[in-house]
Amino acid sequence: MKLFLKFDFNTICKKVLEEKLYELNLKYRVLGFGEVEIVGKLSSDKYHELQESLNKYGIEIVENQKSVLVQKIKDAIIDMVFNEDTNVNVKSSVYLSEKLGHSYGYLSNLFSEITYTSIENFIILQKIEFAKQLIITTDFSLTEIAFRLNYSSVAHLSNQFKNTTGITPSAFQRIISKRREKAQKANN
Amino acid sequence: MLADDDEDDRLFFTDAFEELKMNTKVRTFNDGVELMDYLNTEDVILPNVLFLDLNMPKKNGIVCLKEMKSNQKLSDIAIAIYSTSASEEDIEETFVLGANIYIKKPNDFNKLKKVLSDVVSINWQYHTNGLNKDNFLLRI
User: Fold this and answer.
1) pTM (global) more than 0.80
2) Taking CB atoms and an 8 Å cutoff, what residues of chain B touch A122?
3) What is the DSSP string of chain B?
């Protein structure tokens, strides 16, 4: 007996894609043909797993060179800000261009083009996020936090904090601890 | 998404977004009841940021905020309070209740454009860089 089959390649591709993303426990949105948005961060392990499982079906992840480099810039900045060992007293422009092997001007333009924000702003944002984390998870004084994050003075950190978030570090601390009290009360 | 009972403010807001030419969709509501009814419909597409006026008839902004924060389906929406009040108490109270952003309504159209574009871009930073949303507080 012979069966005649009709295929719809789009449906097949979409089904395979959805199944694989589901197997890897990834939250996703299919944006249209050939485009998927992963909700949240995709670790490089998961990325490779996904790449491998899709390759078996002849589906390839097209890497956009520019986006890849921007991700590298972001990773380098996060490493620089959050990791004490790399938090050396080198100017961030020198650090980035040495680490990534491109001139700072090139990196800076590319970054702005892709992310709609500047490298400088991104560094400030990350530093302030780290300061927030230290404020609420440790007993460090603001002076110690300023020192850890390479600020020349507490005033400099406070100012940048206020400029970035619109509130002072102490107001931030107060709001978060009130939120926690409220959550605890609700749980009791 | 904006909930505000003042028609001029709503117009001002949508015009500002239009002029910014960002790839955004704006939807407005006249009061808190209308907003919450919409958010509670099935298959609703949740907004990236919700701009919430505090003084609205029927259901005010604080009540909406509390309802959203106690509803698991809605608790992750970034909330921007959009108010004429700049009282420190209002600001702190809404932050403690879980608002992420507090905007004092600007009188000037260009200032409004600047504020909205700042809000959208910083919210995007939190969204794309996996930053901890619990620590997202911004006052402008």
Assistant:
1) no
2) 125
3) -EE-S-HHHHHHHHHHHHHHT-S----EESSHHHHHHHHTSTT----SEEEE-SS-SSS-HHHHHHHHHT-TTTTTSEEEEEES---HHHHHHHHHTT--EEEEPPSSHHHHHHHHHHHHHHHHHHHHTT--GGG--EE-
